[in-house]
From TrEMBL:
SUPFAM superfamilies: Periplasmic binding protein-like II
Signal sequence residues: 1-33
Protein name: Carbohydrate ABC transporter substrate-binding protein
PANTHER family per the UniProt record, alphabetical: ARABINOSE-BINDING PROTEIN-RELATED, OSMOPROTECTIVE COMPOUNDS-BINDING PROTEIN GGTB
UniProtKB keywords: Signal, Transport
C-alpha cells in the first residue's frame, strides 16, 4: 500500500455523507445469512456481456505489475488469460512489493517498466503522473469507463482533470466477519452500534474465546480500524479535512476516535494473543485463525473488507454459513462506509497497453474475476448474479447502489511516508498505540509530527 506527495481528493467521490451507502449495506447484509457469450468479428472480438471490442494483438507482449499474491493473484491471472484469448497478446504478471511506487521506480530506472500497473491508491496515481510515468487513458478506454462507472469512481482515477486510472477492483472496508459457531455457542448477536459491539465482544469473551483477531503486523489494518471509527464518530466533513491534513492529528476529534478504539484494543483478553501477538500476526493469519479450530478458534471476530473471503476460502469455513458478516457498527450518527480500490494505470502508451486498460474497464473482465470470489467491482454493468454466493452478491448490489456516497480510505490518500510505508508514519504510530492504548495524547503528537513532515504543509 502506498501514497503520494500531495493528496488528490475529488469532490464527486467525497461530497456526500455515507448514510445512504451505509443503509444500503446494512439492508443487504441483513438479508444474508455469467459472463456473456463471445462472438468473432473479423479483426476484433466482442462479448455480449459488455460488448467490449478489442484489437487483434498477435505477437504483442505485455506485462502487468501488482502487489497481489495467493488466490488474488491467481484469479487476476485468469482475467489476463481471457484478454490473451481474445486478442492473441501474451501477458506476464509481475509480482510487485510494497510500496509499489518504489518498486516501479526501480523497474523504470532499470529500463524495464511494466506496461500497466495496478495502483492501490489515488495518491499513487498522482505520484506516477508527477514522475511522468503514467500515460492518460486513450479514447476507447475512456469511453468504456464512462459507460460502466459512476462519476465518483471515474473521478478518483483522474489527475488534474485527465483520466489515468481504471478502478478495476473495489473494496468495502466497513465489515466485521464472525465465526457463526462461536456466536451461537456464546449466545451473541450481531451489533448495530458501538456499545452493542462492546456488549457482543464481552459475551464472546465470557464464552471462553477472544473476541477479536487483529493483523497488527500489517499497519494498514490498524489505519482501517481508525478510519471507520473516525468517519462514523467525527463525520464526513472532518474526515475529509483530516485526509487532506487541513486539521491536525492533535484535534479533539482524533482524541475521541483513539479513545474509542482503546475500548477494544486495550481491553485485556479481547485481542487474540494480546498486543504482542497481534503485532506478530499478518493480515491473512488474522482471518484464518478466526475460522479454524472448530468452535474454539483463536478469535470470534475479525475486522476487514470484503476481500477477507479469499482468506476464508483457505479454511474449511463456508461464507454465509460458518463465516458471517455485519456492517461496521455506527459509533456516531451513521454507520461508516469506507472504500478502497486498485486502479489500472498505463505506463507504456502502446496499442496493447491501452487495449488492456479498455478490457479492464469492461464488465467482461470484471465478470471473470467476480465468479471466482473475494472480489468486488465498481463496474455498474457487472451482473450481481455472477458473484459466487449470496453474501457477495448483496455486497455488490450495495456498492453499486451507493453510487458516489462513500469515503475513500484515508491513509490511501496520504503521502507515502505517512500513510503507506511499513515501519513509518501512521502505520508505525498505530502499531505503537495498539501496544499502549492508554497513550492517546502521545500517539496524537507522533501522528501529527509524522503527518506534518510527510505532507510538508506545516498545518
Amino acid at each position: 500500500m502506498l501514497r503520494t506527495s500531495r493528496t488528490h481528493r475529488t469532490r464527486a467521490a467525497a461530497r456526500t455523507a455515507a448514510a445512504v451507502a451505509a443503509g444500503a449495506l446494512a439492508l443487504s447484509l441483513t438479508a444474508c445469512g455469467g459472463g456473456g457469450d463471445k462472438k468473432s468479428d473479423g479483426g476484433s472480438t466482442a462479448s455480449a456481456g459488455g460488448t467490449v471490442t478489442l484489437p487483434k494483438l498477435d505477437g504483442t507482449t505485455l506485462s502487468v505489475a501488482a502487489v497481489w499474491t495467493g488466490a488474488e493473484q491467481a484469479n487476476f491471472k485468469k482475467v489476463l488469460a481471457e484478454f490473451e484469448k481474445r486478442t492473441g497478446a501474451k501477458v506476464t504478471f509481475v509480482p510487485a512489493q510494497d510500496p509499489i511506487i518504489n518498486f516501479l521506480g526501480s523497474k523504470i530506472a532499470g529500463g524495464q517498466p511494466p506496461d500497466v500497473a495496478m495502483l492501490p491508491q489515488p495518491g499513487a496515481i498522482k505520484q506516477a503522473v508527477e514522475k511522468n510515468w503514467a500515460k492518460p487513458l486513450g479514447a476507447e478506454a475512456q469511453a468504456e469507463l464512462a459507460k460502466n462507472y459512476s462519476q465518483g469512481w471515474q473521478d478518483i482515477g483522474k489527475v488534474d482533470g485527465k483520466q489515468y486510472g481504471v478502478y478495476y477492483k473495489a473494496a468495502n472496508k466497513s465489515l466485521i466477519w464472525y465465526n457463526a459457531k462461536v456466536f451461537e455457542n456464546a449466545g451473541a448477536s450481531e451489533p448495530k452500534t458501538w456499545p452493542e459491539l462492546l456488549s457482543t465482544a464481552q459475551t464472546v469473551y465470557d464464552s471462553g474465546v477472544a473476541p477479536f483477531s487483529i493483523g497488527g503486523a500489517d499497519g494498514w489494518t490498524l489505519t482501517d480500524w481508525f478510519e471507520n471509527v473516525y468517519l462514523s464518530q467525527a463525520g464526513p466533513e472532518k474526515y475529509d479535512q483530516l485526509a487532506q491534513h487541513k486539521i491536525k492529528w492533535t484535534d479533539p476529534s482524533v482524541k475521541d476516535a483513539l479513545t474509542t478504539l482503546a475500548q477494544v484494543w486495550g481491553k485485556k483478553g479481547w485481542v487474540a494473543g494480546g498486543a504482542d501477538g497481534a503485532l506478530q500476526t499478518e493480515f491473512p493469519a488474522s482471518v484464518t485463525q478466526t475460522f479454524t479450530g472448530g468452535d474454539q478458534p483463536k478469535a470470534g471476530m475479525v475486522y476487514e473488507g470484503d476481500f477477507v473471503q479469499v482468506n476464508i476460502g483457505e479454511t474449511k469455513a463456508k461464507v454465509g454459513t460458518d463465516a458471517k458478516v455485519f456492517p461496521f457498527p455506527k459509533v456516531g450518527a451513521t454507520a461508516p462506509v469506507v472504500s478502497g480500490g486498485d486502479a489500472a494505470v498505463v505506463l507504456k502508451d502502446s496499442k496493447g497497453a491501452q487495449a488492456l486498460a479498455t478490457f479492464l474497464a469492461s464488465p467482461d473482465a470484471a465478470t471473470v474475476q467476480a465468479k471466482l470470489g473475494g472480489y468486488l467491482s465498481p463496474n455498474k454493468n457487472v451482473d450481481p448474479s455472477v458473484y459466487p454466493n449470496p453474501v457477495q452478491q448483496k455486497m455488490a448490489k450495495a456498492l453499486i447502489a451507493a453510487g458516489d456516497d462513500f469515503r475513500f480510505d484515508m491513509s490511501d490518500q496520504a503521502p507515502q511516508a505517512f500513510g503507506g510505508t511499513p515501519g513509518k508514519g501512521e502505520w508505525k504510530d498505530l502499531q505503537d498505540f495498539l501496544k499502549n492504548p492508554s497513550d492517546v495524547a502521545g500517539t496524537q503528537a507522533k501522528l501529527e509530527k509524522d503527518a506534518a513532515a510527510a505532507y510538508g504543509n506545516g498545518s
